[in-house]
Amino acid sequence: MSDKQGLTVDAILTNLKQSNIEWQQVLENVISAFDCTTGTIHFLDQGTELLQIQAHKGIPPFLIPKLSTIPIGKGMAGIAAERKEAVEMCNLQTDDSGVARPAAKETKVEGSIAVPMLLNGKLYGTLGIAKPVPYDFTEDERNSLLKIGEEMSKALLA
């Protein structure tokens, strides 16, 4: 992780301690910090156990209805929520594991990662970002995203 990215991640973590959080801005800051173009934030509806879209960027409008509500275990976000760990693809376009839903390929992104928003082992949602090129996220990047997810969870409880 570069110093620039480290400072940006620190700035994101600091912003998550504010009382009035703009989730769209948080997502845009994360996308920028990790040199990505696309992203989503889903919050877990504790009553229905469904992930509900809270913020998105770079998603084609016709796909929004398909990812507004995601069941646990479906697609990258749903699997990250189910496993409570990061789910990553170097190239979503060529993936044939079944993890990515068919509609996900219509985003035209390649390197992508979804991380759970966890606090003390409890799921609060997911954060997903992607690049338009094949990419493997580093362990430092995964850890930073998980830390951001933890701080997002704390912010939801504040």
UniProtKB/TrEMBL annotation:
Limits of the GAF domain: 24-156
Pfam family, one: GAF_2
Protein name (Swiss-Prot/TrEMBL): GAF domain-containing protein
